[in-house]
Predict the structure.
Amino acid sequence: MEVGFIGLGLMGRPMALNLIKAGHTVHVWSRRRESMQPLLDAGANDAASAAEVARSAAITISIVADAPDVEQVTLGTDGVADGASAGHIHIDMSTIAPAAAQSIAARLAERGVSMIDAPVSGGEVGAIAATLTIMAGGDAAAFERALPLFLAMGKSVTRIGDSGAGQVAKACNQILTGVGVAAVAEALNFASKSGVDAARVREALLGGFAYSRVLENHGQRMLERNFKPGFKAWMHQKDMRIVMEEAHRLGLALPSSAATAQMFNAMVGSGLGEDDSVAMLKLLEGMSGGSGK
């Protein structure tokens, strides 16, 4: 398939590379020109704007930081809508608020473009290995047309429902992973401060009902003090902000999410925003009288 890809950061670059590896013809554009070079070296076609990407392909994909960025690359000057023909499909794989996804989709529809919101889970590791979990919202027929592209980037691909439903699923994912990271960091810090081997505690917990992928994968990274970003703390802060804004809009009590959102706020405020979210352990150590190094 001819596909356009916009946004070539930590996640977008390996995702676009996997589309090339799967045999698709990929046209790329990024606001930072240096981000495009690895894709061009791999055989992608250079585009001068998001509009040019859309003129070159029937389906475009974006993965950028937040809703204003999605709006800019889709509906702004030289955006996707300026270059798309009738029947074009745009897939946004960023994490944004469900209401924002619905609003952008509605405005794109007025210009003949169908939008699928398809945020992902799995981090940089999943993006590289093409094992992402993809949660999609939007028109069923458009989803079926795009499915070969999703399958080149992810292992679990689910259409949740209509426009915005993918973002609702991603918000649920971020509640579970965010609260999970905070819980694992608290447990390992508690074990260490109690004078026992946190690695042995984790080993024991993996065999019982406390088992989770967060404890298995992120817990090991905490023990190794591997805080290299696969998913930066400031990004999880942004996602938890989305969760809390939606909770306020819906009038929902999300007490665990609220506490976790404050922890991510503290991480960013303490200079840990560029570290992986598992650096929550460093924050708790510092709050507990440790070095937090």
